[in-house]
Write a structure and sequence with these properties.
Length: 362
């Protein structure tokens, strides 16, 4: 998103355009009116990544327009980023300006913050990191009261922790989430809470089991587990699986089994195409699945996974790409109908949006 797109005065109009687009995409399926969940107008983004551009003897925070890697756009502040990131930006810049050890061959800075106030800064270098760098980074971490990760080719040095811990409120309960450096997390914490609350409410109190595909770090797993007898959750990313397991333990959630399988592999397992050693100790036949929850990547569900979801009474689907969501619904529309839908404005001032639908068997 460019600075020129940031225009809080136009926020309501932009959100209305997104709603109209979602309504148009879901119109062939006679979907009900979408519930709309707004974003804060500024300071909503908990992550930010900047390249550093050297000019006039110093390095500046920079981004680039799509398709142009040669014309930097400099930033001294970033109003869509969290207040914590904006407070840290000038202090970090002053630190590398004052230290040749910190600034030498520094080419990228990444910020990861939380609603609860924690911060982690990743500093990326085109040179080896040594003891002198680590000593300077330790002083910087103490001064800024942050965690720091230093990255160079083949090396990673952690000062403090390599994750932040978020706290999110869902249906009157607080959940704690470890969010590792480098792993995917929802960027808009306030809207993420609204998504979790909506999914929790829409799933309802069930007396059967839930299958969750693409569970990530357990973002949805934790609150949804409180609504069902037990959960079988899958995720392919090793770092996300490790974070999810830690989050389940930290929150005392004991009715979830998590397996490191892709959605395609789980489809094969449930269809008894072949066995998987990673499912050792899990009796798939013991589950009484009534619902499936999916939060796939932008490409949506592949046709086989889409067919797998057809066997469930309820399909709760969160999508970061309404076009592929509509394509998946089209495949399922002969057996399932959209009974609830929602728009979550995770990315204000862009064309991107998150959408949620509940598909119920006809």
């Amino acid at each position: 998103m460019s600075r020129s797109q940031f225009d809080p005065a136009r926020y309501a109009a932009q959100l209305a355009e997104k709603k109209a687009r979602l309504v148009e995409l879901l119109a062939p399926f006679t979907a009900p009116e979408p519930e709309v969940f707004e974003s804060p107008r500024e300071h909503y983004r908990l992550r930010a990544e900047f390249r550093l551009w050297r000019e006039d003897g110093n390095r500046h925070y920079a981004m680039f327009a799509a398709g142009d890697k040669h014309t930097p756009i400099f930033f001294d502040d970033f109003p869509i980023a969290s207040a914590r990131i904006n407070a840290l930006m000038p202090r970090l810049k002053a630190a590398w300006q004052a230290s040749a050890t910190l600034s030498f061959k520094l080419f990228q800075v990444e910020f990861l913050t939380t609603l609860s106030g924690e911060a982690l800064i990743t500093l990326c270098y085109h040179r080896p990191l040594d003891a002198a760098w680590q000593a300077e980074a330790e002083k910087l971490a103490a001064d800024l009261q942050v965690n720091i990760v230093g990255r160079s080719r083949g090396k990673r040095i952690v000062i403090g922790k390599d994750y932040v811990e978020e706290q999110l409120q869902v249906a009157g309960r607080s959940y704690r989430y470890r969010q590792p450096e480098g792993a995917f997390t929802q960027p808009n914490g306030e809207v993420n809470q609204k998504m979790l609350g909506w999914a929790h409410e829409v799933l309802g109190e069930r007396d059967d089991d839930l299958l969750e595909l693409y569970c990530g770090n357990g973002n949805f797993t934790l609150p949804l587990a409180s609504r069902v007898r037990k959960v079988l959750a899958t995720e392919i990313s090793k770092s996300s699986v490790n974070a999810a397991l830690a989050n389940l333990e930290d929150n005392g959630v004991d009715n979830v089994s998590l397996v490191r399988l892709s959605a395609e592999e789980l489809t094969e397992a449930l269809n008894e195409v072949r066995p998987f050693r990673r499912l050792a100790g899990i009796d798939l036949k013991s589950y009484e699945f009534g619902s499936v929850f999916v939060d796939p990547p932008r490409a949506g569900m592949d046709p086989d996974t889409c067919e797998l979801t057809r066997r469930f009474e309820r399909i709760l689907y969160i999508s970061c790409n309404p076009e592929t969501l509509a394509a998946n619904i089209a495949q399922l529309s002969d057996t399932h109908q959209v009974t609830r839908c929602a728009l979550f404005d995770q990315f204000p001032y862009t064309h991107h949006m998150e959408a949620g639908v509940l598909l119920s068997r006809r």
